Amino acid sequence: MYWQLFLTFCKIGAFTFGGGWAMISIIQREIVDKHHWLELEDFLDLLAVAQSMPGILAVNISVVVGDRLKGIKGSVCAAIGTILPSFLMILAIAIFLTPETIKNNAIVSRIFKGIRPAVVALIIAPVLTTAKAAGINWKTIIIPVAVALLIYSKLPYVSNPIIYIVLGAVGGYIYYMHTLLKGSNGKEANDA
User: Fold this and answer.
1) Minimal CA–CA distance to 37: which of 73, 76, 80, 5?
2) pTM across the whole model
3) Where are the chain's structural domains?
């Protein structure tokens, strides 16, 4: 299992461009759909935990998934698998290519221009999947859209994403407590 974790995250790390969000759909396909190591709801919960941790999202998600599956050793295997391909690629680039060579090379420039649209698609796909699994519909879409616009506005105090993370946590806790109390009141009414 440790070797499978390492190889799976190594493959994810080697073939994903565009950062953590671009990796999420690939990680979900590997972890949830292909290997069936986690249910989609569990994966989304771990994704929320990984996003709330400081550091690189791709490494964070590999650590929490590895931990869920095989504890600390699983975390280490998954994290090394995620980091190793990027490290080796950057090392090879640093050894063989100078910044001037990359900037002035038409082929390399065209390759990166071709990758950009694919990265956008890789980022949009997990957003849609996450929204669907989180139960976002036409009635609740206003919340993520409003938050995204407020963050994008770059207005002082309003554009700080930490505010919305805290408000989301507080709102989720209040909603949970409300449904818990509502459920216990309904149970008492049924018992009577």
Assistant:
1) 5
2) 0.62
3) 2-135, 138-192
